[in-house]
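*** Backbone structure tokens ***
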Amino acid sequence: MAVSKMWSWFLPLVFGVTLLKCLLIPAYYSTDFEVHRNWMAITYSLPMSKWYYEETSRWRLDYPPFFAWLEYYLSYYAQFFDEEMLVVQNLNYTSNATVLFQRLSVITTDMVFIFGVISCCKNIKRTKESKEILEKPDFILAVLLLCNFGILIIDHIHFQYNGFLFGLLFLSIVKMFKGRPVDSAVLFTVLMNFKHIFIYVAPAYGIYLLRSYCFAENKQDGSIQWRSFNFLRFNVLACIVCAVFAVSFGPFIVMGQLPQVLARLFPFKRGLSHAYWAPNFWAQYNAADKVLPVIGMKLQLLAPANISNASMTGGLVQKYKHTILPSVSPLTTLVCTLLSITPALCNIWLKPRGPRGFLQCLILCALGSFMFGWHVHEKAILIAILPLSLLAVENRNDAGTYLILATTGHLSLFPLVFTV
């Protein structure tokens, strides 16, 4: 009965949001539009052995293999709109049919996001049934997710496929809440092979599954019962991870291309910060390094010739050597990230509090990686904001945190829709 009532408002909400997305079809789009068009052209026109070597465009294929196959799948339908968009040499090709197809492809793949949202709404605990729809936690959650400002501007203006990916993340989280950790692990492993940015929250999955699934029992005081370790469960998880990665990377391993694929996925030469600085610790670090030379030259402590000329605001950021402050290496950011998320990981290891504790740890891992990671994109803040929505509708304190994080995080996304 409750589910049927949910559909009575969920379907109109989905229809309204989808209509808004359709209205945004002719809106401004960023260079990511050309990125995905080029990836479709590469996967459609070239054999798989050349996907991660093609360099006609500077927007090279740098997502995991599953996403490359998604582009290949989309290219099959793209040819019926305008086959010219699938020619690798047609750089910056933006015919009306191309724009229409690529926009519709995002709207269509958002069905996974919608499915993930409805799964989350069904999973909400209802302490009391409210007659007012605006007071229903499931309705509030659906609005927060389906109408999320970040998803709308990044996917349907800026242009990406984040809705599809977050749909997989939500389905994985829901499986964890339903006591189906194996299904959750499968979905999350698949997700990482679509977009490797979700490795940010992999430690939360790894530690929680090891502690709460592989160790079957606890002592009376809640501490770990070491003898309860279940090797069968551990092997099941290991086989799942290995199998999914084998399907994804196996063909490239056979062709001897794994180093090339990994070099594309982890381009450390791009620099510490992304083109639009994510509002994290390193943005402040870079800003301080920009201000200190000015002060140094004013005080005649530095010569202008010693100031680095590397750009930190271009589309492809150069490797930048700091002028005053010590230069930061990828290893440094990794250590800082691990230090920032260690307390959360230790907490769910020492005091596991079920799926809710897992979700809290996932959010903290996302925030720690966002604050201290290497070459972080500003849009990565959504990995924390969207899962936090699930907690915000059930707890007042989490709602306060969500309000602050969503306001500041979404504000930082505005540079993505700026155009001259």
User: Anything to note?
Assistant: Confidence is low (pLDDT under 50) at residues 310-315.
